[in-house]
Amino acid sequence: MDHITTLTKYMSHFVDQLIFSGVEDVVISPGSRSTPLAMTFRESEDVVHWINLDERSAAFFALGIAKEKQKPVALVCTSGTAAANYFPAIVEAYYSRVPLLVLTADRPHELRDVGAPQAIEQTNMYGSYVKWFHDLALPEESMLPYVRKQAARAVNESIANHPGPVHINVPLREPLLPDFTLLNLEKEERNLIPNVRKGKAHLNEEQVSELKEILLSNKNGLIVCGPQTDPLLAKSLTNLASRIGVPILADPLSQLRAGGHDKINVIENYDALLKSDEMKNRLLPDYILRFGAMPVSKAYLQWVKKHGSSIKHFVVDEYSSHREPSGVLTEFIWCHPVVFCDQIASQLEEGRTNTSWLSTWTHMNGEAKDQMLAEPDEAMNEGHAVVYLSEAIPDESVLFVGNSMPIRDVDSFFMSSPKAITILANRGANGIDGVVSSALGVAANGRRTTLLLGDVSFFHDLNGLLIAKQQNLNITIIVINNDGGGIFSYLPHAKSSDHFEELFGTPLGIDFQGVIEMYGGSHRRVIDWSSYKKALKDSYKEEGLSVVEVVTSRDDHVAFHKTRWDKIAETILHGGIEK
């Protein structure tokens, strides 16, 4: 069989198996060496293809699609540094447990390490940040069962145990253009490899009995839910907390603050409450039962580190992992979180359990909420930008949040809501690169998406806006522009260093309007609350890219937040609320 026929069959069987195994989307960055992969994907009507020119943006865009769908997404690029540009998103996908199939085209083996153009060492190039790597064999007709096996395994590896990225390197010889008139895959012997059947980990009867006794015998328990994306957990977890009679400290990315589930036990303002050392000492639980990753709140982490030796600590995780960065003695429970909650709750009496411990937390949470939501003065601030956003954001939509200060302001100011709002962020590696592209990947799935981020993060991924223009994706982007890195204002040397502004403040001095219009978007720059509320309302009536730029001051940032936290501590500690 000639080379073109072999190449066409080999790539067609590879892509066909990927699609059969569950790949619904592929993000392609154009290039020469990847022609057989790109053309074969493009030829298929059973996969949605996205063209994204910038490989770094493409990888984060794919990550956003996969994060929203919770299904593996394929990435295709040419050889050389194109593949290196995937690296930041691969790192994020690994730590945030997002399945990606990274398919990098490569020179054939005889052109490696001999000075051939656009050839770098691509074998194992992502190291321990991918769950599995395979350097694919060169196309041969006898290898069709082999190439299907590798495709099926790649998908299975990406979703097995904890989901994450896998890497298949695809060496290809010229000529590179397939000829799809040479085969009809439907009439060929496809030999599809069946998908793996996956069950959910559960507890045995003895474990259920033992954990039930621990939860009931320790009256002052605490459930904590950090970042997680399972939409089914909220109902099961709040039901469990209600039957035990304990509060749930709900991270903004827990999916517990918004939706139609019962929120009586949900505490949103724990970060503000735990800013006070005296409050940290008063609110010591008998145990902490945590779901999801470590919460965003630094105050919570410091609290656990300080008092962890006197608190029983449990972490429930569907996968075999050890996600507990506080360093305290922890018992890991490897069980599907929804199954865990339902198993324990089934052994408890139905109905609501009220305790003085729960009443204390809910009372304090109410006091803190009143202070955090108190009407702002005329000056624009990041906190109330979140408050008014939470009021305006459409029901059944997604809020994607940038790192540094935006996610912390959402933690502090996004309160419980009956709206069905999914809140997502790239909290695996907590980077500020690729945030725009990730949010656009979420928007590509069809749900109305809002992105909240800072000006530096926005600047980092302006290239990502191109696909919004090309695909007419509907997204509202709220840029908090304080002309620099606001989070660094909390550093101890923020006021004392002669070089702070140059090294940490990093003012951009950029007028974003021209860039936004270049990508076909609308731009609204707001400097007061009435114009901000109107801009949000108008934005949600539009299609395509809409950017609302909120101008704030870094000089007021720290003082604004500290005033709120101090007022909360003063109200609670001197208002007679005791444990």
Automatic annotation (TrEMBL):
> Pathway involvement?
Quinol/quinone metabolism; 1,4-dihydroxy-2-naphthoate biosynthesis; 1,4-dihydroxy-2-naphthoate from chorismate: step 2/7; Quinol/quinone metabolism; menaquinone biosynthesis
Occurrences of domain Thiamine pyrophosphate enzyme TPP-binding (ranges): 436-550
Q: Which Gene3D superfamilies match?
A: 3.40.50.970, TPP-binding domain
**EC supergroup of this enzyme:** transferase
Give me the reactions it catalyses: isochorismate + 2-oxoglutarate + H(+) = 5-enolpyruvoyl-6-hydroxy-2-succinyl-cyclohex-3-ene-1-carboxylate + CO2
What's this protein's function? Catalyzes the thiamine diphosphate-dependent decarboxylation of 2-oxoglutarate and the subsequent addition of the resulting succinic semialdehyde-thiamine pyrophosphate anion to isochorismate to yield 2-succinyl-5-enolpyruvyl-6-hydroxy-3-cyclohexene-1-carboxylate (SEPHCHC).
Q: Which residues form the Menaquinone biosynthesis protein MenD middle domain?
A: 215-401
Ranges for domain Thiamine pyrophosphate enzyme N-terminal TPP-binding come to 12-124
Q: How does it assemble?
A: Homodimer.
The protein in question is named 2-succinyl-5-enolpyruvyl-6-hydroxy-3-cyclohexene-1-carboxylate synthase
As to how many cofactors bind and how, the note says: Binds 1 thiamine pyrophosphate per subunit.
List the Pfam families. Answer: TPP_enzyme_C, TPP_enzyme_M_2, TPP_enzyme_N
Molecular-function GO terms, alphabetical: 2-succinyl-5-enolpyruvyl-6-hydroxy-3-cyclohexene-1-carboxylic-acid synthase activity
Q: Which family, according to UniProt?
A: Belongs to the TPP enzyme family. MenD subfamily.
